[in-house]
Every structure is written in structure tokens, then in C-alpha cells.
Amino acid sequence: MASLKFDDNNVPYLDLGDGYRIALEGDEYTDAKAKEKAARELRETPDVVEQSLQELRSLLQEEKTLYVPMDNDAFMIKFLRPCKYYAQSAFELIKRYYRFRSKHPDLCDELYPASVKHVYAEGLVHFLPLRDQHGSRILVLECGKKWKPSKVSLTDLFRAVQLALEAGMYEPRTQLNGAVVILDMEGLALSQIMQFTPKFAAMALDWIQQCTAMRLKSVHIVNNSYLFNMLFAIFKPFLSEKLRKRLFFHQKDWNSLMSHVEAKCLRPKYGGTLECLETDGMLLGEMFELYHKEYELANSFGYLKKQD
């Protein structure tokens, strides 16, 4: 049975047995391979980082109604990395990110782990313990038969996905290597499809394509049946060309999935060889709750609300 433990630095982790664990990795990467990749793909060199931080601070100082921790390098780099250290691009991303939060208070206000722990308890949103062969975080969304809209609303499901991606955005190694999403649609029924509207689809894709500080490397849709085509038709008009090229439909063809993600990173139900305990959703929610102060601080940033 999976258990929640703490390492020598008091960092919480889910112990899945046989040395496998799920933990948030807040430490900066220092190994030569990661630093070389960061320099090659993100232009991350000491001089560029220093100049970009200065430029981004100057731009943010002019955005008078936006409150963010400009003196916190880690916060700034979280937005600079996915923009390859182009300060203007990072500035525009920060504005889109916080405008989205202002525009959708039902989805973004008080986004604390305690508010969505029931979503994790249902096993709908979770990480795999290993990163893929490129160092990307692997996030699994099980939105088919496991999802019962009477227990978990679409709003809460979206909030739980946001919270998980926020956790990934906090990790320097994920900022560098990005994330891979596995969307498991096994047992998808009309009762789930009926929850989605074109308005929601437009909002969700605006968020993922324009407003997240995350290098989304690929989305792999598995166990998709003909019913999934009805759901995909709602989202298709709002897909950017960039995201279209990163969408892969595998149905139950695990060799197809493993041509993108190594077998050792995938559980046997996806054709892989990763043999460890299942992620306990209840414990994953509890682990996120241990970061309540960090989420509380993150929720204090944003555009100042207009006074009535």
C-alpha cells in the first residue's frame, strides 16, 4: 500500500515501493547535462538570465495594477524559461496568466489543495513516478468511467488539473523539460460528454495554449472510442496549429504510445514495464495540502481588484 513519507530534508513524497516515489522537486538543476540543454534550448546562460531578469522587472514595474513578487528570481524564472528568456514574451505571458485568473474567479480563486482533494481521491488526476526519457513530467488524466460528474463537477476537475500543473511549474526540471499528458478516456459515456460546452472548450484551450507557464510537449489520448470523436469535435475549432501537432491518438495501440514515451515510464495498463504501487489519490491530495502555504502565497498575486 502506498504511503506518505518525508525525506531527510523534510520534503514529503508518496512511497510507491521498490524505490519509486512521487515528490515535488523544488531544487534547481545543477548537473552538466541539464545546464547544457537549458543553454541550448532556452538560451539560459548567466548573462542572458541576468539581463532578462532586469528587463522583465522594468516591464512589470510599469504594470501598476499587477501585484507579483518582482524581487523573487525563482518566480520570474518560472515565466522566463518557457519563453526562452525573452523578457517581453514572459511579460505578455504573465499578463495573460493573471488576466485569466481575474476573468474566471470560479476556476481560479482560492485554488488550494483542500478545495479539490476529492478530485484526487477519485484518481482522476495524478503523476507517474518517473519522468519520460526527455525528463518531462508525466501527468495522467482519467476522464472516462472513473469520472462521475455527480461526485466531481467539471469546474472542480479543471481546478484540480490547474493545481497539478501549478505544482509542475514550481519544479525547475519541469520548467526545462516540460510536461507530457496522457488523457485516458476508457469508458467515456454520454453523461460525461454532456458536461462540456463550446464555451468551456474555448476557455480551457485558451488557458492551456496561451496562459500557462509550461512547456507542453505532447498530449497522448488513449482508450479513445468513437464516442470520443463527439467530445473532440467540441474542442477542435479552438485548437492552435502548434497544439494540433502535439496531439496523438493511440486508442489501445501501446506500441504507438511507446514510440513517444519509453516503456519503463509507463504502467502495464498502458503497455509499459513500470511495476510499482498505484498512486493513492487520497494521499496525493494530502501531499499537495502540505504545500498549502505556497499555494496561499501564489493566490495572493495578481491584478488588483477594482473597488466598488
Automatic annotation (TrEMBL):
CDD domains for this protein: SEC14 (cd00170)
The CRAL-TRIO domain, residue ranges: 112-278
Gene Ontology CC, one term: membrane
GO molecular function terms attached to this record: phosphatidylinositol bisphosphate binding
A Pfam family: CRAL_TRIO
Protein name (Swiss-Prot/TrEMBL): CRAL-TRIO domain-containing protein
InterPro entries, per database record: CRAL-TRIO_dom (IPR001251), CRAL-TRIO_dom_sf (IPR036865), CRAL/TRIO_N_dom (IPR011074), CRAL/TRIO_N_dom_sf (IPR036273)
SUPFAM superfamilies: CRAL/TRIO domain, CRAL/TRIO N-terminal domain
